[in-house]
């Protein structure tokens, strides 16, 4: 009889342990390196992406534009000063863009292709948050991004995000890739949009809003969270993903 009781107690302990492990796994907050390790390296460059991986970020967030010759490049601004002229990325061929360098902390790097970023992410087991910007030809632009993701069988390892809801709808029309609607101030009217989650500015988020979004079965990513007080607040709110310039600090606080 004692053996049976002990066995039941052991089974109960094991089941409780498994449930707790699953709960911890389910509640794990992921960390996104905003434009790579942009704190220490030129943003949106391969050197920033490489160091984001070294810092053990879960995701790299990056921005994508399409060049005049229809190549996808990683850069935030839609315009760039070349010489004395301000030119749109969509009016510049990649050959010209490839000669431009950015510098930070005495580190210099060039504008990468999205293809290079995807290949790096796939080879190094890190996910991507691909932020789409408005282009001249929306359908061509979105299709080019989705086709490139599919070329490397990377759909399960990335999220496509944008401030432009129409771009996200275009993604949904041709793929099952997860989408995030980037928004400054979340409104309850947005809760039923055809997206998988929301990327919300940190000052416009609270625990109640996170719970409401989670009840809809959608994710909450929050940007851009760089100081200890805000990081702890987002952990308390139980967001799904913290987007930050300071990956090392966020990882350290989450681990405490």
Task: Please mark out the parts with pLDDT under 50 across 5 or more consecutive residues, or reply none.
Answer: 16-26
Structural class: alpha/beta
**From N to C, what is the helix and strand string?**
HEHEEEEHEEHEHEHEEHEHEH
Query: In the CATH scheme, what's the topology name?
Result: TIM Barrel
Q: Order of strands in the sheet with the most strands?
A: 1-2-8-9-10-11-12-13
Largest sheet: 8 strands, parallel, barrel
Structure description:
39% of the residues lie in helices and 25% in strands. The chain is an alpha/beta fold. It has a single domain, classed as TIM Barrel. The strands form 3 sheets. An 8-stranded parallel β-barrel has the order 1-2-8-9-10-11-12-13, surrounded by 6 helices. A two-stranded antiparallel ribbon has the order 4-5. The chain has a two-stranded antiparallel sheet with strand order 6-7. Helix 8 crosses helix 9 (247-255). The protein is globular, with a radius of gyration of 21 Å.
What key attributes describe this structure?
single chain; 9 helices; alpha/beta; TIM Barrel; globular; 256 residues; 25% strand; 8-stranded parallel β-barrel
């Amino acid at each position: 009889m004692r053996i049976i009781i002990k066995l039941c107690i052991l089974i109960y302990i094991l089941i409780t342990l498994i449930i707790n492990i699953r709960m911890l796994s389910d509640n794990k907050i992921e960390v996104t390196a905003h434009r790579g390790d942009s704190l220490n390296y030129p943003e949106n460059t391969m050197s920033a992406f490489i160091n984001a991986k070294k810092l053990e970020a879960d995701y790299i967030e990056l921005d994508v534009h399409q060049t005049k010759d229809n190549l996808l490049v990683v850069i935030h601004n839609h315009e760039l000063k070349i010489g004395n002229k301000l030119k749109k990325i969509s009016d510049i061929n990649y050959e010209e863009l490839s000669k431009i360098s950015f510098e930070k902390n005495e580190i210099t790097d060039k504008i990468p292709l999205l293809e290079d970023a995807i290949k790096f992410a796939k080879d190094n087991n890190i996910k991507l948050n691909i932020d789409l910007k408005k282009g001249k030809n929306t359908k061509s632009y979105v299709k080019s991004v989705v086709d490139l993701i599919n070329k490397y069988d990377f759909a399960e390892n990335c999220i496509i995000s944008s401030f432009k809801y129409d771009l996200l709808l275009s993604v949904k029309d041709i793929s099952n890739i997860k989408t995030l609607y980037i928004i400054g101030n979340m409104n309850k009217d947005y809760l039923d949009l055809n997206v998988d989650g929301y990327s919300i500015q940190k000052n416009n988020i609270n625990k109640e809003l996170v719970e409401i979004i989670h009840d809809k079965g959608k994710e909450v990513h929050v940007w851009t969270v760089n100081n200890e007080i805000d990081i702890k607040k987002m952990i308390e709110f139980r967001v799904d993903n913290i987007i930050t310039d300071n990956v090392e600090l966020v990882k350290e606080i989450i681990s405490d």
